[in-house]
Every structure is written in structure tokens, then in C-alpha cells.
Amino acid sequence: MTCMEISKRGFRKSGRFDKQSALSVRCSSGGRLILNPPCYSKVGIGMPFFEREGIRFAYDEFGPAGAPVVVFSHGFLMDGDMFQPNIAELRNEFRCVVWDQRGFGATGAATRAFSYWDSAQDLIALLDHLEVASASLVGMSQGGFISMRAALLEPDRFRAIALISTRSDVDSEEVQQSFEELKAEWARNGAKNVAQNLSAFLFGPEYAASAWIRKWMNASADHFEHPVNALVSRDDITPRLAEITHTSIVFHGRDDAAISPGCAEALAARLPNCKDLVLVDRAGHTPNLTHADIVNPPLRDFLLRYAR
């Protein structure tokens, strides 16, 4: 199937999202167990940081210290909050590490140009900081771009890879232009004129997303420049997919308006050791968040089998 994209179409108004709070306790092994899904302030209060290239990256971790490590990398416009319902399912059996990438969440605005290869090195630096020799990866959209590049940079570092709503190739010129227009609009007016449409585009019309809209409304007007540039200038790694021999699984929403399900089919077909392609009915670009009840069981089964 041909890999197609939809850029400006499909924007619809969405509803409201009430964030769940979190409570974590320190266990005797030194790790943390989450009693409720994690909730991040995104002002950096109480969150640990690591530094690379003068940037302070926010991260957090949940679960037993001695459990297999799984690193969750979020999508464009998102932050570690997007994995709350997945970590709630996985926290008892895995050491779940979430981090906020350059330009997002508590890590804050990106002040200089970067590529997703730089972001992949950021992910590896996080593992170095945590003194983790081996981990598995869960990457959603942009987080998938980064996870695949990290696997190419240090293949022996990773066990298994779960890819959600992502692709290995590049966007069409039309889609790239739409992001350039979005960048210009954000620089002029912030998110106020685009937040509702972005919410519907990413989450679909039924998901209550007011918390995400508030995040975007509170982001600085210059928030978008370098992250958009990294997105539209990324290289095509399709010719290198054969090098990603790690056990993998691909998830995708059937109604994804940002990246076509055809991209997921192509990705799964080209990954040498892909065990399954899970297409989620009535889900858009963020199925792990909006349809966690469908995504969590196969994700958990995959990690239990291959991430240990």
C-alpha cells in the first residue's frame, strides 16, 4: 500500500480532558511503584534532570529498580504525559522511563537547531546517566523516529522496539509546507488559533483533551521553530531498516490523519524481525493514549516476551 499523508484535512473540535494525579512510593529495592498513573507538572518541580550539550532534560522513572528497563519517547507536540495509561499497566513488571525531548514538556524550548540523530543521542545519554546497559524502546510518532535512530546508533544497547504511529520515510512537500505554516502562525500568535484543530487532528473528536490544549496555550511563541525544522528536515532511514534486527511490533490507528496506516504496513513489512502489526479501529494518531485498553494488552505481552 502506498504511504500517504493527510495534513490540513480532518481537523474537528474535541472535548475536555481531566488529568489524573499520581502517587509513587519508594520500594525497598530503591525503585518506585506507581499507585496511580503518573502525572507531570511540566514545570520541572520534583522531576530529575540530566544534562547533555548544555541542555537540561527532564525525565522520570516508575517501577522496580531491578526490572527490565523500557524507555518511552513521546510524539511531536506531546510530552511524557502521553504514556500515563500505558505506564499504569506496565509499572509493576518494568522499570518505565519517560523523558521530555528538546523543545517539549519540562525540558523547555529548544534554543538551537538539532536533528533526530541528536535526539537519539539524547536518549542514549539518558541511559548512560541512569547507568542502564540494556533497554527496550517504545516510541510514538516523533518518538519512533528517535527510537529507530537510537537502535541504528547503538544496536547492541536495545532488546525490543515498539513503534506507534510512526514511519521511516519523510513527509511530502505539501505536509512539510503545512508545518512551516503552522510554525509561522505559532510564532505570530502562539497556539490560540490552532490548538483546537491540533487536538482533533492528534486525538480525534471524542477524546477529552483540554489538558493538552492548556499546555500548548502556555507554550512560548518561539516554541515551534527548531522542533518543526527537525521534523521537516529529517532524513529517510527506510534503506537502513534491514539493520534494525531487534524484535519489534508496530501499532497504528486506522483513522490516523497524520500518518497513514499504509506507512505502518510498509514499516512492519520492512523490519526484519517485526512480530505483529496492530491496527486499532476508530483510533487516530495517538492510539496508546486514546485507546489504551486496546493497545496495552498486546504491548504488555510483547514486552513480557521480548524485553526481559
TrEMBL record:
Keywords: Hydrolase. It comes from the Bacteria. The keyword Hydrolase applies. GO terms for molecular function: hydrolase activity. InterPro entries: AB_hydrolase_1, AB_hydrolase_fold, AB_hydrolase_sf. Gene3D superfamilies: alpha/beta hydrolase (3.40.50.1820). Residues 68-291 form the AB hydrolase-1 domain. Pfam families: Abhydrolase_1 (PF00561). This is Alpha/beta fold hydrolase. It comes from Paraburkholderia elongata. The lineage of its organism: Bacteria, Pseudomonadati, Pseudomonadota, Betaproteobacteria, Burkholderiales.
